[in-house]
Amino acid sequence: MLRRLIVFGTLMAAAATAQLTSFPKPGYFRETFARSQTRVVLNAPVRIQDFVVDGKIELSLRHFLELVMANNTDVQVQFVSLEIPRYGILNAFGAWDPRASASFSTTRSTGLPSSALDAVSAAAITKSLTQPYSLAYSQTLDTGTSYSVQFSGSKTSETNSFLSYNPSITAGLQFAVSQPLIRNRSRYVNRLPLMMAQSNFRVSDYAMRNQILGLVNNAEMAYWNVISARETLNVDIQARDTTAAYLKFMQQQLDLGALSPLDIFNPKANLAAAEVTVSQAKYALVQAEDALRHQIGVDLDPQLRKLPLVLTEPADPGPTESMVFDREEEVRKALALNPAEKGAVEKMAYDDLGIQSAHNGLLPNLMLSAAYTAQGRGGIFYPGSSSILSDGTVAPPVPGGLSNALSQMFGFGYPTYQAGLSLTLPIRSRSASAAMGTALVQKKLDALAERNQQQNIRLQILTDVTAVEGAKEQLKLSIVERDYAKLNLDAENQKYQLGTETNQNVILAQQTLASAELNVVNYQIALRKSILNLLTQTGELLDARSIVIP
Predict the structure, then answer these.
(1) Distance of CA 18 to the CA centre of its chain
(2) Distances (CA, A) of 43 to 191, 306, 550
(3) Cα–Cα distance for residue pair 506/486, rounded to 1 Å
(4) How many CA atoms lie within 13 A of 298 on its CB side?
(5) Helix (H) or strand (E) holding 189
(6) Which of 272, 396, 437, 454 is deepest in the core (most CB within 10 A)?
(7) How far, in Å, CA of 480 to CA of 474, rounded?
(8) How far apart are CA 457 and CA 327, in angstroms?
(9) Within a 10 A sphere around the Cβ of 96, how many other Cβ atoms?
(10) Higher-confidence residue: 492 or 464?
(11) CA separation, residue 475 to residues 55, 211, 228, 460, 470 (Å)
């Protein structure tokens, strides 16, 4: 008896400890029964006001990218979307959540008469009241073991005078445990869904980082597009002004009679064309600035979106001699750091877990189960006519109740032991075989996708390195072109001052210099964009821009 009592106390303590560690948590009922909040509150753009100087938004590239990470809606979408696979991990843990249940019911019934005598005699009609109840606690462990503790009983009373206990109160306490021996028998197998959820989260995290890389690339491209549009407009304005000066000179020649009236139309047409070019450049700058405002979320603020933009980053990337990139080394870095490649590798690890899970589904299911039940009965006991006292009277009823039933139950005097094995043998499981085949095919598809990813990365890296080298060479040549254009303008000015050259050639030399300067700026920005694309493909862009993703 003492040994049984110790075993019972140990099991009850274990069940109580499990309950206390999981339920109730602070605010459980408030969280469970509170009305669901479907309203979503979106935060307004932040920190933009910090960069407003004299009614203008002044942004360096670093500050611009900080605002992009803080306010860009597409970036926020990527961060929020990662919460879904994170909740998938929480859902996988749900397989081992403990469960508690309670039930109570009451049934009152009147029996049908079985004879004509019963129909006319009210005492012959049986009436009963049954009230069963139960309390249960159960949990499945990650080892596959399932256990349960259940306390149950009932109270039954009838108008039948031949019952020994009326009302009859029963109580029972059952401990049950089951353990799979083949399928789902180990902790590793049972944790496969959790490991797959964690692997899926890593795949989603790499995908999110790859998307962030692309978004930062697009944002920085927008920054350089504004600078390019701004410089293009400045050059077009200078070309327009020189064209206007040339037209003024030709008009003076016409007024002096040194020029035919038919020769004035060509410079006028050139000025009109220059005005069209300036107009196009102005609206191109407006479009580029609107795209930039969209990147930092300033378009959401009615006041700030009206402010002009001032970008302080120079177009000149600096000395190009140190910009040397080894093609194979860049490919190696990309294969090691590119989040798209990491995601492809992790996807194959996910497939390996899926294959193991599918293999587990092919196994037969052999289950070992055991149970122990203690019972007790109480209530008012009627000895009946067979129990006659010495004076010839029938023994009086013996009072009793729930305490008697509990006393018998905890005395463990009426135990029931149960043990069993159950085997489910899949003679032919097409669904499990199909799941295994699908898992193997998916692994092969993902392996091919990973190889294709490596090939694409290599090709893109080689393309970007070539683009960088080409942009460096073109920038060097454009600087030489600009220097010669300056020398040519100086020569034309000297010849004009000596009277050996006309003003027209001076103006043409000025236009040539303006075009050469624009080429230098364009190739500087082209070099910056080429390096930007290379850093994006190698996965180094975020570190290069001091952007940290948790």
Answers:
(1) 31
(2) 39, 20, 20
(3) 11
(4) 27
(5) helix 187-190
(6) 454
(7) 10
(8) 12
(9) 14
(10) 464
(11) 35, 31, 15, 22, 8
Tokens standing for 139? 């949990």
Residue 176 contacts residue 64 (beta carbons within 8 Å): no
pLDDT of residue 114: 65
What is the C-alpha separation between 227 and 527, in angstroms, rounded?
14
- CA angle 296–301–302, rounded 5-degree value: 135
- Per-residue pLDDT band for 502 (boundaries 50, 70, 90) equals low
- Give dist(CA 12, CA 332) in Å, integer: 59
386 half-sphere exposure, CB direction, 13 A CA radius: 4
> Per this entry, what is the length of the chain?
550
Tell me if 201 sits within 8 A of 86, measured CB to CB.
Answer: yes
Residue with tokens 């700030």: 304
Q: Is the dihedral of CA 533, 539, 541, 544 positive or negative?
A: negative
What is the pairing mode between strands 365-381 and 415-424?
Answer: antiparallel
Residue with tokens 């397989």: 95
Residue 149: half-sphere exposure toward Cβ, Cα within 13 Å: 15
CA-to-CA distance for 529 and 515, rounded, in angstroms? 21
pLDDT tens, position by position, 26-54: 677 777 777 877 888 888 899 999 999 99
pTM, to two decimals: 0.85
Token readout for 18 is: 């499990």
pLDDT at 85 over 80: yes
Q: Which residue has the tokens 């092919």?
A: 362
Q: Which residues pair with 131 in a beta bridge?
A: 155
Question: 146: helix, coil or strand?
Answer: strand
SS (H, E, C) 32-60: HHCCCCCCCCCCCCCCHHHHEECCEEEEC
User: Rounded to an integer, what distance in angstroms lies between the CA atom of residue 265 and that of residue 281?
Assistant: 24
Burial class (CB in 10 A: 0-12, 13-18, 19+), 423: exposed
Report how far residue 309's alpha carbon sits from residue 292's, in angstroms, rounded to the nearest whole number.
9
User: Is the Cβ–Cβ distance between 207 and 344 less than 8 Å?
Assistant: no
Which of 100, 163, 86 has its CA nearest to residue 137?
100
Q: Is 226 helix (H, G, I), strand (E, B) or coil?
A: helix
Mean pLDDT, the chain, rounded, equals: 88
Give Cβ neighbours of residue 294 (< 8 Å, ≥ 6 apart): none
Q: Which of 118, 123, 190 is nearest to 161 (CA)?
A: 123
Continuous H helices in 397-548: 402-411, 430-497, 503-538, 541-544
Contact partners, residue 374, CB within 8 Å, separation at least 6: 8, 172, 173, 174, 409, 410, 412, 414, 415, 416
- How far is the first Cα of the chain from the last one, in angstroms, to the nearest whole number? 59
> From the CA atom positions of the chain, what is the Rg in Å?
43
Strands (E) in 115-198, as ranges, are 127-140, 146-158, 165-180
